[in-house]
Amino acid sequence: LCRWMITACKSKSVKHMLYCEEMDTIPMVSSLLSSLANYSNLPQGSKEHEEAENNEGSRKKPVQAPRMGTLMGVYLPCLQNILGVILFLRMTWMVGIGGVIEAFIIVLMCCSTTMLTAISMSAIATNGVVPAGGSYYMISRSLGPEFGGAVGICFYLGTTFAGAMYILGCIEILLVYIVPQAAVFKMEGLEGAEAEAAMLNNMRVYGTLVLSFMAIVVFVGVKYVNKLALLFLACVICSILAVYAGVIKTAFEPPVFPVCVLGNRTLVWKGFDVCAKVIERENGTVTTKLWRLFCDSEFLNATCDSYFANNNITEIQGIPGVMSGILRENLFGNYMDKGAFIEKLGLPSVDEPDSMPTNTNRYVLADITSFFTMLVGIYFPSVTGIMAGSNRSGDLQDAQKSIPIGTILAITTTSIIYMSSVLLFGSCIEGTVLRDKFGEAVRGNLVIGTLAWPSPWVIVIGSFFSTCGAGLQSLTGAPRLLQAIARDGIVPFLRVFGHGKANGEPTWALLLTACICEIGILIASLDNVAPILSMFFLMCYMFVNLACAVQTLLRTPNWRPRFKFYHWTLSFLGMSLCLSLMFICSWYYAIIAMAIAGCIYKYIEFRGAEKEWGDGIRGLSLSAARFALMRLEEGPPHTKNWRPQILVLVSMDSELNVEQPRLLSLTNQLKAGKGLTIVGTALEGTYLENHPQAQQAEQSLRKLMEAEKVKGFCQVVISSNMRDATSHLVQAGGLGGLQHNTVLACWPRNWKQAEDHQSWRNFIELVRETTAASKALLVPKNISAFPSNGERFTEGHIDVWWIVHDGGMLMLLPFLLRQHKVWRKCKMRIFTVAQMDDNSIQMKKDLTTFLYHLRIDAAVEVVEMHDSDISAYTYEKTLMMEQRSQILKQINLTKTEREREVQPLLMIKQVTLPSRASNAEAETPGTAVQMTWTEAKCDGEQLMVDGFVFRNQSNLRRMHTALRLNEVIIKKSQEARLVLLNMPGPPKNRSGDENYMEFMEVLTEGLNRVLLVRGGGREVITIYS
């Protein structure tokens, strides 16, 4: 396209000649619209895999455009996924245990949660095209890769455990209601824990076999699953219609399902045909089979079970019908402990006190302890499956229209079915039958099947096939979800599961899914598996609501969903309901699920690939950053909140690599304050010409920052000269209230070389600018000798020479350094200098008290420096410094000016001075050079001492001070690991700049590691809490 435009420009055939030069990077609007019109987006889903299998060995045909509408593409798949095993196997039991009122509340809560989630999902799904991945794609692109990966994996685990739940439901229907004789572990004659263990083992054996068969079917080809999907859906619809037909029939002719009750205990209708102890025959009274179950013989004088002997047998109708008024008895809950008898309310019962129950296998017993929150956990999986439509978004003709309408209609339909089922079950079925989970009181029939018309087998067969189909759908969808996550590359250890067969079938993902599903099979109890998958689905739904709420509140320009019936309050309500239901279902499962998601989140954050998806969390971060920056603008930070916000100035070599990498090591060691870090560098030239070099320099900085584990920002400035570029960094670094307050720059090591004369001038200007801007300045000298982050000092001292008060910087910096593992074992010493009229003892006490209030552990020493005579060596150093200064000035002078300036130097060079070796001799009383500084003797601009001409008397005084301080520091701190020292300011008169560098050299001579510190003019440490 771009090549065509360029050719057209050259041939003068394009009307928009004004934009020809930009067409290599910017397409024309007409061309852009044409490319968008031809765009097709069909995910690598089951449809493509099916076509690939049919076309193997031949050239692949073009993928046809999506054709499915709202009904076939969204409504019916959602209906099939929502209605399932819980409705057929546990709904009646939930109504019997919790009562109609509490069961209705549970259904209302769960359906409201999914409806609110569907509203949020509709807003997200209509805010652009949703490719393969469905819910994972929506969450990851709305909340970022960390949340997307964590919730995507949780949704994958939920879908996988849902497969296990459907398989367990399928096996339960098979072994309990269809062919009980097929049990591998026989349960005849077993009671209590033994019978339960045999049942669980049967579930494990058959569950593993069915799982293996389903995995093979999915592996061979999902086209078989897709072809059977319509059959499975027909089974579900026929089963539900049969139930409604049966309810209508009970109003006129209730089905005959008698229930036998002994006293008030419900009996297992098995092994007898008549619900009576004895029956009257022509030849007299005859005992029944029921008598023989509780007595030791068939004769009337036999010894019988005490409870059997003391109570009467009653036969009640199991399905009294919708007009019977049984609803009043079923309104309220009847929670039971494990092993409790299922009792008929209102019937008399005579029970001997202190007698142990016998023949318990003859009664219908509660198999688990029941309570309200457990019912919520078991029921919630029956309302999941609302994502089925969004997962097929690539197959829809108009996804942005079909997903909201189809999903909301499906949830509305299923909610009506569930709520009406609660009312109808409570109105038609006897309470003892409702609480009988496995239908033992009604001759082993499925309880909901007893209500169906024309036969209970309609429900049994229909529910069996629907659970099989749901299991296959889970084993088909879960691997593709995992494959979508793996192909995004955000979780490194999952990348292997992104591969599959030649047609894209996720083979490795299917294998992992089958292994995880086997874990649910080994649990073997549908009631224990259901709360597990409830956790994962609830977490997924919670983050769908969060994503919609965040996008709505941020009002990002790209948030323009076509679905308009949403609001952030609804999303927050849905999110709150999901979180509440998680802890209502099972607080420990909720904590485990959150811990899994949290671990995945942190793993992706630290090890995952960085993705920029324009997600809402990034937008939220931008909004929070803007809010925080606006708050910071309200005023300067309090002393207690002060921390070094460091601007690190580094220089680059000719290959655009950092010349002083140890400067970033020092920065890392100073970052115990957790403040801002900006690493800046300056390049000489123009921005247009040097922009590629700036990008390369930025990459080099980022790489070094990552290697040195420095968290912060990098900035490259290009200017016509280095001085201005550095000044721009100091002035413009940071944003708003988040600006640097400290500048870290290296000492110019080659400043004495004539070719590098500009470096020391730039350095002194930097000192002046930081002082003018009230910013602190840190200058490490001999930076190459500073330790790397991998080194450790096992002993030693950090010495602080506190000459002038700088706001506490000299106290704070050693404290921050000692938080790092490099300096942690070093001890801190503070030296201060006393003058002639100072009380050294009192100074030490005051400083010790001050450090105590600052909560800083350090040894204190006061060094006395008395006024002394200026030595011959001082004169020599000063004279040499002035000579060098004059020579440096010649570089930029004209020939005439140069000759005029050199004359005094030629006169001075003719004079010889005593060397430092003869200092002792020169400092004895009576020598010609002995001189004590007084205002009377040093009064003018120039000074002559025994033929030596000094241009500025202040230079002599400063040199004297620098030498005396250096001698004291060398004496006390030569073995220290680090010396921190007040950095004097440069002279106000720029004519003495070159001397300033010499003074600093003399002051730090003989020290290995020195950190010169210049405060920013404000207090940075306080004694107050």
TrEMBL record:
It holds the Pfam family AA_permease. Residues 46-59 have a biased composition (Basic and acidic residues). Keywords: Cell membrane, Chloride, Glycoprotein, Ion transport, Membrane, Phosphoprotein, Potassium, Potassium transport, Symport, Transmembrane, Transmembrane helix, Transport. Belongs to the SLC12A transporter family. K/Cl co-transporter subfamily. This is Solute carrier family 12 member 5a. It is a multi-pass membrane protein. It is found in: Cell membrane. The keyword Glycoprotein applies. One of its GO terms (biological process) is chloride ion homeostasis. Residues 74-248, 365-647 form the Amino acid permease/ SLC12A domain. Its main location: membrane. The chain crosses the membrane at residues 69-91, 164-185, 205-222, 228-247, 363-383, 403-425, 532-554, 566-590. It comes from Cyprinus carpio (Common carp). GO terms for molecular function: potassium:chloride symporter activity. Residues 661-770, 792-1025 form the SLC12A transporter C-terminal domain. One of its GO terms (cellular component) is synapse. It catalyses: K(+)(in) + chloride(in) = K(+)(out) + chloride(out). Residues 41-63 are annotated as: Disordered.
